[in-house]
Amino acid sequence: MKLIDMKVATMGHNTLVRLITDEGLEGYGEIERNSSYTKPQLLFYQQHIAGEDPTNVERVMLKIRRLGAFKPWGSAVSAIEMALWDLAGKAAGLPVHKLMGGKVRDFVRPYSTGGYAPLRDQSPEAYAEIVRGQKAYPEGFTIVKQGVGWHSGMPKEVPNFTYGEVRQGYGHLGKGLLTEQGLDHVVACIEAMAAELGDEVGLAIDCGPGWMVPDAIRLAKAVEHLNLMWLEDLITGDYSPHVTASVYREVTQATSTPIHTGEQIYLRQNFMELIEGQAVRIVGPDPMDMGGLRELKWVAEYADLHGILMAPHGGGDGVFGLAGLVQTCAAMPQNYIAFEIPQCLPTWWKDIVIGLEAYAVKNGLIEVPDKPGLGIEFIKDKAAGYLGAGDEGFFD
Ligand SMILES: [Mg+2]
Predict the structure, then answer these.
(1) What gap in Å lies between CA 75 and CA 77, rounded to an integer?
(2) DSSP string for 160-225
(3) What confidence category does residue 32 fall into, taking pLDDT thresholds of 50, 70 and 90?
(4) Residue 117 pLDDT level (bands cut at 50, 70, 90)
(5) Domain with residues 3-94+379-386, CATH architecture
(6) What does the pLDDT read at residue 148?
(7) CA–CA separation, 111 and 124 (whole Å)
(8) How far is the CA of 274 from the centre of ligand 1 (A)?
(9) How far is the CA of 85 from the centre of ligand 1 (A)?
(10) Could you tell me the distance, in angstroms and rounded to a whole number, from the CA of residue 342 to the centre of ligand 1?
(11) Ligand 1 center from residue 284 Cα (angstroms)
């Protein structure tokens, strides 16, 4: 079997890749939410995979992995890797989890991120209210996450919050030391959420990037009594094109609160220092930025060897990311906690994709589907109506 074409399109918040073979099989992958500017990157790799047998996934990846980097380049490499596994699974008549080593678990745990729900303001009461809503979701999530500090509206909306620079948008540009009032406000909001959730639902906190080391340590110690799931991305985070493991190690060694990072990091090699240096307690790679599904499995196994836990980031925030995460997390070792559930918005995705209902969350868990590949398929005539301008030939 040979790859004869690769097509790229925007649909909703996602950029999609479609790999087409000479035997009529096709595979799909997608790039992280709001990354429609990654189309040119995807198309760059087209020339390097043409004519390859897509079922030799690693052989194809050897050609393009070295031409990647932190996002947006790694996002494109990752989307192609996912589409290759979709194709390889369909060609073998097996679900992707079988190609990843098979099911370690029949049910995979996701967690809920409330970052897209509107907070009415930045008060502790508003934060308590929003996790009350998450706790009541019909999916029955057992872990919920909220953003605070540099990963929230606090720098802009809370008076006298920081001595640093408040810059919003374009991938978390704000950074700096917090005032005492600012830090107290963050702690008060976390305490309000923890009190609301009680000990029935775990609370994870997304923090940055942008924290200074003294603040990061003060925060982590101040919330030790709350038994948080983790503090995420204090030092680096989304769109940081580096790892900074030694700085994370300072924070991790100073506290019993688990420290988490990794969503922007490309390739297993760039996790080595974090893992071997015990710089974090939990890694959170995104399969759609790190180089793909097998890369995620690799890092989960290497983290497990070092006593480090795994809680992956939300894989493109779309339907293929959801399928890829479930299929891969099913085959992870027992350091697996939960993955961040993609929002799969707008809601019309469920009208144009078959098989999505098998990925529904029930009682806080997703039963791992057994259909070949990623187990979801477009209803092409319906889906074509949602293609971005200029992408009309995507399904031809
Ligand atoms: Mg995050």
Answers:
(1) 6
(2) T-BSSB---STTT--B-PBPHHHHHHHHHHHHHHHHHHTTTSEEEEE--S---HHHHHHHHHHTGG
(3) confident
(4) low
(5) 2-Layer Sandwich (3.30)
(6) 96
(7) 22
(8) 17
(9) 25
(10) 12
(11) 8
- Quote the pLDDT of residue 241: 94
Contact indicator for 266, 289 with CB cutoff of 8 Å: yes
Distance of CA 242 from the midpoint of ligand 1 (Å): 15
Q: Which residues have C-beta under 5 Å from ligand 1, the single-atom ion?
A: 206
What spacing in Å lies between the alpha carbon of 19 and ligand 1's midpoint? Answer: 29
Q: Give me the phi and psi of 175, to 5 degrees please.
A: -170, 145
Measure the CA–CA gap between 68 and 71, rounded to whole angstroms.
Answer: 8
* C-alpha pair distances (Å), 126 with each of 119, 122, 199: 6, 6, 20
Ligand 1 centroid – CA 129 distance (Å) = 21
pLDDT at 234: 98
What size, in residues, is the chain? Answer: 396
- pLDDT at position 171, please? 67
* Cα 285 to averaged position of ligand 1 atoms, centre (Å): 10
Domain ranges of the chain: 3-94+379-386, 99-374
State in Å: Cα 385 to ligand 1 middle.
32
Ligand 1 centroid, distance to 362 Cα (angstroms): 24
Which CATH architecture does the domain made up of 99-374 adopt?
Answer: Alpha-Beta Barrel (3.20)
